[in-house]
Amino acid sequence: MALVGTALTLSILYLAALFAVASFGDRRAGQGRSVIANPYVYTLSLAVYCTAWTFFGSVGLAATGGLAFMPVYLGPTLAALLFAFVLRKILLITKAYGITSIADFISARYGKSGLLAGLVTIVAVVGTVPYMSIQLNAVAASLELMLVHSPNAAFMTGADSALLVALLLAVFSILFGTRHIDATEHHQGMVLAVAVESIVKLLCFVTLGVVVTFWLFDGPGAILEGLREAGRGDLLTLAGTGYGNADWILLTALSALAMLVLPRQFQVAVIENVELPHVRRSIWLFPLYLFAINLFVLPIALAGVASALGGSPDSIVVALPLAAGHDWLALVAYLGGFSAATAMVIVETVALSTMVSNDLVMPVLLRIKALRLERWHDLSRLILMVRRVAILLVLLLGYVFFQLIGNRYGLASIGLIAFCAMAQLAPLIIAGIYWREAALPGAVLGLAAGFAVWIYTLIVPAMAGTGTLSITLVTEGPAGIGLLRPTALFGLSGLHPVSHALVWSLTANVGLLVLVSLLVRQNKLERLQALLFVDVESSRASTRLWRGEAQVGALLDLLRRFLGPERAEAVLASDAAARGRALARDEAADAALVQLSERGLARALGAASARVVVGSVVRGEVMGPDELMEILDETQKVLEYSHRLEEKSLALEEATGELRRANERLQQLDRLKDDFIATVSHELRTPLTSIRSFSEILHDTPDLEPAERQHFLHIVIRESERLTRLINDVLDLSKIESGRMEWHVGPCDLRDTVQEAVAASEGLMAEKKARLECELEAGASVVVCDRDRLLQVLINLLSNASKFLPAEDGRVRLIMRRHRDRFEVRVEDNGPGVPPAYREAVFEKFRQVSDDLKSRPKGTGLGLPISRHIIEHFGGRIWVEDAALGGAALCFTLPVPRADHPALAAE
Amino acid sequence: MSDRRRHLLALLTAAVMLFSHPVLQLVDALAVAGPDWLLPAYLFAAWAAVILAAALAVERGRRE
Questions:
Q1: What is the ipTM metric for this complex?
Q2: Which of A49, A44, A46, A73 is nearest to A61 (CA)?
């Protein structure tokens, strides 16, 4: 069979296989076992971005402009990094409000404007036509090239291959994409087929790249050598791209915008998205796909240049294998390109046909009363028919464009022209989801102006190039006004034609959008929609847009007419499932059912038309935007009130927690107080018992020996002293805590006081057989305090140290030294020390460290708390740490008084 | 803003700089003294690095 015949057979078999894949996908979806609900299929469907332009055009562009193809793929890579922000928000809006297309999205944002939806649809169709022509051009050119190598293919002679391809793709797209009328229902079969096509085109291109690079040539080095011999080393440099400084940036930005606004990208990325989280992994998987498919673009293109093939650079991928005599490789290349083209055409026509029917044709048909559409029992067939005709028309328009203009330009040039047209939608979307004030008049005027500038700066020169318009229009400007030359508008020159068009069209578009939006007031419905879109994450609660009454029967009839009986019943069934019972025909439909019906109709007709159609059967009226805004304001107030309540609840919870903690602390203190009272009582009882016992003996036994009497009296005196000391401690603590302590503040020599305390404690140390050492730094040591209380502290610390000394070789060392602004006194011992966990506890009142240690306390346990109160009263600090002697060191500081201290001045 | 989103924004900024015309001109100028394939190699290496960094930012964010 002739090569071209094989290619045609292969194309038909491939389409049949795709159909089988799509049917499989739909069947699985019908069984509730979706095969597209994963991030990998989602990413592969995004790769519909890579069309025949990528397959044939990128290589063609690289063969003439080296790295000039790269901005088209770097742009989407950068855009993908913003998926988590922009695409996520668009998806939230789309899923919340049943959006069916990019036109529906924009129109819904700007007050469900039918005018804007129609305008967006016109821009999308006109902007896509050049793109469609690329696909036809690429596939047709490949077929014709193979025809040259097929001498026996008489059956193709004289045939218009582009028309043949257009009709073939139209039939396939109609069969494929218009099986359902619910535009929001995921086309699972189609998405699966597109994913498979993405794999096929990637495999074909990589196969071609590997064979060309490593088989036809001996690796990249050999290709580079051939390139140098051909004198085209410039293709590896920036100069070789032919881009100016700004072109690289502008074309990268344009491609990034295209990733968001091309109808087919919106279709697969937004409408066909099954689950929001799939976006996350596509952030890096999609750029990875772009990287992989572009890896061999340059080697193949440079190999084509080195081989001096002649002919169109866009045909290198097929011409190169044919020239080398590898027909099979040419078929692989053709199949990859055909796959890329079909994927694009299918998705694009499905998206465009939905827009044409929902936003252009049906709104017009519904307004033509002579058609009497209200009498039609089933309009779903009409809707499907409109969509099918739209598909055919779009492809035929692409064919006409190809015949008039397309075959005179490279694929990449036409692709960029299409990108620039679609980029006019980007300001409306970006402003629509981030700027509440963006208004309908601004959107309409901005889009119209941008689109007009696009036609003037790109289409007019292209038509002049074909002779359809006078060339002087381009060379001299209209009426000879040079400033208005389409390719150098207002004198801007030196840019790539697409960059030039992009700058002026977006300037006009964004300028008018912003300016007019700032000058006009939005109507109420626009304000409402703006609020719902911009604050989608906080206002996703369903809003009841309808008031008044409608009968269930009337709504059902309406749904049947536009959706067909099955889908109409499905809408009512979902309502019945939500409310727990099915409504009868003669029952009144509430706002929820009316809203549900509107959404169902919006899927087939678009938001603007659905609203009009539902309004025709609802008695009463659509709830006015004023009332709706009032409801929203009320809702906002309720939400704010709820938020405040939540905050108060949290505060109460915190207060409760604090109260609970305080209560626990009180209970602990109560326990400590009881313990303390028990301890004090015990301490009081012990000396009192002794005193009483020995006093009774003295009283009852007058004939006691004098020595014995003397001994008993000594015990009574000692126990009385102990009793006095204990009572004094309790009284001191009580006075300090209640603030009734009388302080006799004045200058006091710390060294003298320390020496006095040492002298007073010598007896105690002697009793313990302990050695008391003093290290007192020389120099002035005046502090301001109550001398008696300071002495009490020092004696207390020395006494405390003595209690814990070992039975043998006890040592106590008292150190006094001065720092820059304070004196420090340390009382160290060689006792057991105080573990870190108890070092703060020893200063707690009602708490004796010995409660936690093994030995019983010696004393009331009030000495250290009293000492802390005294030291802190005079601005010092007291603490426990390890001593150099091995035991504990009880340390305190007192501030060095300033020279102008009042106490010193009085002295 | 979550850490993942902040990392992606930082990566976007870095990627814009890597692919900016002034940086490409610098690499292009280096290619005059070095191998003539330096610019394509730089572009593809930078592209791969951005993809790798994006994968790390996204997947690490998922685990957290």
A1: 0.95
A2: A73
